[in-house]
UniProtKB/TrEMBL annotation, chains A, C, E:
This is Mitochondrial import inner membrane translocase subunit. Keywords: Chaperone, Disulfide bond, Membrane, Metal-binding, Mitochondrion, Mitochondrion inner membrane, Protein transport, Translocation, Transport, Zinc. Coiled coil: none annotated. GO terms for biological process: protein transport. Heterohexamer; composed of 3 copies of TIM9 and 3 copies of TIM10, named soluble 70 kDa complex. Associates with the TIM22 complex, whose core is composed of TIM22 and TIM54. Interacts with the transmembrane regions of multi-pass transmembrane proteins in transit. The twin CX3C motif contains 4 conserved Cys residues that form 2 disulfide bonds in the mitochondrial intermembrane space. GO terms for cellular component: mitochondrial inner membrane. It is found in: Mitochondrion inner membrane. Pfam families: zf-Tim10_DDP. It is a peripheral membrane protein. Mitochondrial intermembrane chaperone that participates in the import and insertion of some multi-pass transmembrane proteins into the mitochondrial inner membrane. Also required for the transfer of beta-barrel precursors from the TOM complex to the sorting and assembly machinery (SAM complex) of the outer membrane. Acts as a chaperone-like protein that protects the hydrophobic precursors from aggregation and guide them through the mitochondrial intermembrane space. Belongs to the small Tim family. It comes from Cryomyces minteri. Residues 16-76 form the Tim10-like domain.
From TrEMBL, chains B, D, F:
This is Mitochondrial import inner membrane translocase subunit. It comes from the Eukaryota. Residues 86-101 have a biased composition (Gly residues). PANTHER family: MITOCHONDRIAL IMPORT INNER MEMBRANE TRANSLOCASE SUBUNIT TIM10. It is a peripheral membrane protein.
Length: 90, 101, 90, 101, 90, 101
């Protein structure tokens, strides 16, 4: 990305904003589906059981914390790899 | 799913309004696709002994939609609560990491 | 969507048409893959066995009926949620 | 997969023809990706004891493509039949619901 | 696709190039995820075990060969179906 | 993931450079999404007995990222090696088939 001049970077940033919104949406939907799939298994009632609700809340917490941790490690590794030049970049 | 687009921005342009509506439709459509995937897996056994939905399967599908919405609401409330908390200062331990990508 | 004027709604409708085509395609492909995965498990022959074909036909029927029912409930819930204002929209 | 685009519209514009060709290519490509996903799962055991395809795996892959096409044809015929039936008046019980989203 | 004139075909080819790049990316990512999921199951160490690495190498080989074979059969079937006119095209 | 875009083309235009940067960001983002999916499945048991990550889960996630990168590097090296070999003349038995679609 470092080969871009200021105006090109602005153009790219504009496009990225829309993508980030979408990215966030995907993450949100993944979270809903994942916690639903793992926590809701009883269809003898119409509303969430309290144990299902508790499971969903912990699932969201754990998943967000896990994603945050993965994001940190991912960026560290990405940076390390770019620096080491182990794999020739641009 | 419109609750996800918290308001307050002044006077959006035509293009912005269309884009926002488009995003909302995509979001609802994505949610529906996921609901279909999850609920058919949970309620329709993969043996397909008969072509019609039987009573048990129908009831299961109805309840599945209801519970899927409940989970959606819970997750949305939780994330808005945390976002508010973080803005308010006392940033909780988790969350947020995945959005800064 | 109710904040759009007539010309904006036309513009949006145009874009949506293309998306709906794609949406239909995705649904169709999902259906093929789902029924294939669930019904076809024997690879000792090159052509569909009659029991596999029967399974695929019932699978398509059941899946379409299930999707239709889910679509109805989904729209009801969506409408109810929008009305109740339980979750503040725009 | 071109059979999915029933004909009859008069004189499409250049842009429309290109868009239709694009959609068709995307559709074929999506189908191929799904076929790869399904057939490798059904025919290649996840232990990977050897790098080469053995005889049994190769034959399984070939038959898998053949059966995947068969299913595709069956599903397509069934849905066209139901669409015709519905247009003709006697709308069958199922189907269609998911397209009106 | 045969209803396009030369200029339309050029336009289409241009768009396809971008899509092919993306298609390749998706295939590559699928390959990484598939072989990771199937081969890496031990998290008592930070680096790949030699048996995991061996598994990944064979997985990549087998998956590429499998995809190639599937691609050949897919094209043959597609061509046969178009010719037979079993399913009326355009 | 920038190593995937082997260099050598002379003087790309602005639009090309932006498109390349966009593709790179999409690629990294896609990889991260897959990593999240795989590593949370491998390291977080779906019972969610507690809201916090415990020690074992945290360590597992860290190692999972490390191993995911290792696999990525191995696969990339292998495919570049094969591409080189093929260009050099002695086209190996496998590979390549999926890109000609």
């Amino acid at each position: 990305m470092d080969g871009l001049n200021a105006s090109e970077q602005r153009e790219l940033a504009g496009r990225m904003e829309k993508k980030q919104m979408k990215e966030f949406m995907t993450m949100y939907s993944n979270l809903v589906q994942r916690c639903f799939d793992d926590c809701v298994t009883d269809f003898s009632s119409k509303s969430l059981l309290s144990r299902e609700e508790g499971c969903v809340m912990r699932c969201v917490d754990k998943f967000l914390k896990g994603s945050e941790r993965l994001g940190q490690r991912f960026q560290e590794q990405n940076a390390a790899m770019a620096q080491s030049g182990q794999l020739p970049g641009r | 799913m419109s609750f996800l687009f918290g308001g307050g921005r002044p006077q959006p342009s035509s293009a912005e309004k269309i884009a926002a509506a488009e995003t909302e439709i995509e979001m609802v459509s994505d949610m529906f696709n996921r609901l279909v995937s999850s609920c058919t897996k949970k309620c329709l056994p993969p043996t397909y002994a008969e072509a019609d939905l039987n009573k048990g399967e129908s009831v299961c599908l109805d309840r599945c939609v209801s519970k899927f919405f409940d989970v959606n609401v819970k997750v949305s409330e939780k994330m808005q609560g945390e976002a508010g908390q973080r803005q308010g200062g006392a940033a909780g331990g988790g969350g947020g990491g995945m959005f800064g990508m």
